[in-house]
């Protein structure tokens, strides 16, 4: 007779629940500098007598909006640790502290549920471990979102009123000024440079030439460009006036700042500060700019391949050459003389056909090619960063500061620390923590991160689209940075994310 062994049910109550807490404060005011320590103290007290929970870490974003999750570095760190299996449960004071964007809130909670992680919102008494919690979460998240939008509308009304009565003060400081005690004060050294720029321009010197001269003189740490000169020449602040609401925030979440092209009212305030440039000189510059911006009357067809095709043999760009029966592209050096470069012209429709083939290959094999490449690059990036001593030192310093805050909070809760000393010391540690996290974020936002983001974007494009049968200029512009002509029969498409794929030229 077969022997039967009874396996007793597992008692999950014996497991230790790794619990984390998340908090967010929306300003960097002095009153909230101690908020991080206060939250640690609260959750430490809450969990110190627990026999089935251990406090993992405190995640807190300070001075960050809740309407967009991408801007909250600590929230992203929390989600990353959850994905790594470090956390079982998250405690949050309220839904509005977790997110004021319904979409972000629900997406985060759903992902956490798939990972087996529950979130408890104390104020609303909602536990996502319960089946019925998602509907209540959606309702409360919508309330929080509406509250955020209401606050935003009220703030905008206040700003608009100050603009209308001329009491609004802009914090932007144009080159040539310093912002002192809430007012724009002329910086004599920089003001001389601004005057020189206007003098050169009204005398007929172009913006590119002005930028070149300034770069040679090394008058500024940054590189002078055509766009920088144009911004100075068109800025009304140099005649002592201020144009308000050049940009405005959108009305929908997540809020974005966009250039005001007539959608919103603007307010022109005269005599807000001391001028650097005389109005007659400024007006002359504006007339010259307007004259140069006038269309020539000649309509030049813009090709999606313009300035994107490069010769691998000599490094020159290709030139568009319309023929009777077709349009061709030819290396500039070869066009001058065949002896300068041996690569002959290629028809435009052959470039188009090669792109169609490339698109369909990547669309069909996106996961096998691009996703694998992304994983390999991510692994390489992690290895490089783990071996970066500067990053390791920053992470160690941040961890030590958090440990000090934690110990100070525990000692204060036990009554062994003087209250004044505790407040002063925790404020100092909080400032160090904020500085350290900013340095860490700046170190992580490197070119490798940008490349990985672009590669993720590329994968997203192919996952959302279908194969194509005709050349699509928009799709081409989205993914192709450059075409390198290797020979008359082979080209390489250099895509966003720093990756390239070769294609054969099929003669049509």
Concise synopsis of the structure shown:
The protein has 508 residues and is of the alpha/beta class. The protein has 16 helices and 18 strands.
Describe the structure.
This protein has 508 residues and is of the alpha/beta class. The strands form six sheets. It has a five-stranded mixed sheet with strand order 2-1-3-4-5, sandwiched between helices. It folds into four domains: 14-150, Rossmann fold, CATH 3.40.50.1390; 177-293, Hect, E3 ligase catalytic domain fold (Alpha-Beta Complex), CATH 3.90.1750; 309-368 and 465-504, no CATH class; 388-455. Helix 1 (35-47) crosses helix 13 and helix 4 runs antiparallel to helix 5. It has 16 helices and 18 strands. Mean pLDDT is 75; it is low at 9-13. It is 47% helix and 16% strand.
Quaternary assembly: single chain
Number of domains: 4
CATH superfamily descriptor of the largest domain: Resolvase, N-terminal catalytic domain
Number of strands: 18
Helices, by number, come to 16
What is the averaged pLDDT score?
75
Structural class: alpha/beta
CATH class category name of the largest domain: Alpha Beta
Helix-residue proportion: 40-55%
Main beta sheet: 5 strands, mixed
| Amino- and carboxy-terminal Cα gap | 79 Å
What is the CATH T-level topology of the largest domain? Answer: Rossmann fold
* CATH architecture annotation name of the largest domain: 3-Layer(aba) Sandwich
Q: Going across the biggest sheet, name each strand in turn.
A: 2-1-3-4-5
The residue ranges in which pLDDT falls below 50 over 5 or more consecutive positions are: 9-13
